Amino acid sequence: MPDHPGDHTHRPDRPIRVLLADDHHLVRTGFRVILEIEDDIEVVGEAANGERAVSMTRALRPDVVLMDVEMPEVDGLEATRRISADPDQPGPAVLILTTFDRDDYLFAALRAGASGFLLKNGTPEALVEAIRVVARGDGLLAPELTRRVIATFARQGGTSGGVIDPEAALRELTPREREVLVLIAGGASNAEIAGTLHLGEATVKSHVSRVLAKLELRDRVQAVVFAYEQGVVRPGG
After folding, report:
1. What pTM, to 2 d.p., does this model score?
2. Where are the domains of the chain?
């Protein structure tokens, strides 16, 4: 198990290992062509259904699983749940990539433990950057999916995971860490947090890591949901 949530991030001294999970062979081939151009990304395997994605994840230990939603036998959402809940591995980051811009898929993906959610109508550059982002341990949502959607997810009874006693954990945050949590919930990047709080990016990264560790959250997506659930921020606030 990782030392603390977020420690599933890949080491920077080797390429990001990616598993492709999609039931269309041509789609997987296209993704492979896009990704293998990049020096820092390596495609380690392909799965044509969710069951295979789960078993290949256990065998290959990728850093990122690029997961389609609608697949035969076991769909991508159930596969994501199984991968995220596997006690024998810290787990890769699961990046959901789907044709369908549906809130219910987004909510289900977040509940299942996905670290990111992208639509297939994006650019190759956006896909590559998304893989790098979730491999670093950050969460990512497509630009089309606004904070309102995250707030709605929280109000509908979603769960971020996290500590058993969230109120006690929140009290353990320093004032600065609470400020960082609020800015994360607002969708701010590390660079934007640094500019707002007049801190260096390395300092911000340390604050973010401590926030995730204290709240026992996997990544920034979970931190956003947690902040809404616990009333740290309010929809529209």
Report:
1. 0.68
2. 16-145, 160-229
Residue found under tokens 């820092």: 40
Report residue 58 as tokens.
């256990």
Tokens of 139: 């969460």
Q: What is the CATH number of domain 160-229?
A: 1.10.10.10
Residue of 42, 4, 3, 40 whose CA lies nearest to 20: 42
> Are the beta carbons of 95 and 64 closer than 8 angstroms?
yes
Task: Give the pLDDT confidence of 100-110 residue by residue, as tens digits.
Answer: 767 677 777 87
Cα–Cα distance between 184 and 114 in angstroms, integer?
Answer: 17
Cα angle 170, 174, 178; round to 5: 60
Separation of alpha carbons 229 and 50, rounded Å: 30
pLDDT tens string 134-154: 888 776 765 555 455 555 655
Residue type, 17: R
CA distance 71 to 134: 22
- Angstrom distance (rounded) from CA 116 to CA 110: 8
Question: Rounded CA gap, 212 and 137, in Å?
Answer: 10
Q: Just give the CATH number of 16-145.
A: 3.40.50.2300
Specify whether the CB–CB gap between 172 and 214 falls below 8 A: yes
204: Cβ contacts below 8 Å, ≥ 6 apart: 180, 190, 193, 194, 197
Secondary structure letter of residue 120 according to DSSP = T
Contact between residue 46 and residue 26 where contact means Cβ atoms under 8 Å apart: no
Rounded Cα gap, residues 28 and 128, in angstroms: 14
